[in-house]
User: What shape does this take?
Amino acid sequence: MTQSKPMIAAKSRHKKPDMAPVNRGGTFVRIDTKAGRLSVVGLPDDSKAFVKSIRLNVDLFGMRAGWIDFRQGGKIVGEDREKPPEGAGSRDGPSWGLVVDIASPYPTTLDGHAIDGISEHALRVTSSLALEAFNSLWDAASDAAEEAGEGDPVVVVEVASWTKINASSGPLYRPEFAVVGFVDSLDTALED
Assistant: This one.
């Protein structure tokens, strides 16, 4: 019986590509309906924080709906819900969703990181629970803006809570937004 010699890893002659994640240039927010939290990504040390709530300025009335293709950088590749683009419905294909500009000009501390706020960026939403949350937010903000005599203001919101939904795949969470007020622009802080 012959014994095999242990393999010694030889140094590759190929240059290893740079696989470090790209800092997208700033801090931005993601909605995580599987965990019931918001992810704030791009903190000073390139880490991220998880929070249940944060105050956000939302350009709700400038929001765009369409088929979002994350393989193309989250670009809207079609706006007719009845005519999905090629690949829609496949695992990595375009999904129906919305793109809304948000910011948080409110200084805060997240996981020990003091930040001056979160600069304006596009939030892309395709989760059915997040879409439901934005639908409810639209109704509440439209009524509140009309009552206040506002035109199409930027809406200041907070995530008031997360509603647990028992799905066949396990628990999911829908964010419940509360309208806090209105401002003129995404970079204007609401004065308490």
Remarks:
- The two ends are 82 Å apart (CA to CA).
- The longest strand covers residues 154-167.
- The chain has a mean pLDDT of 86.
- The chain has one domain: 28-183.
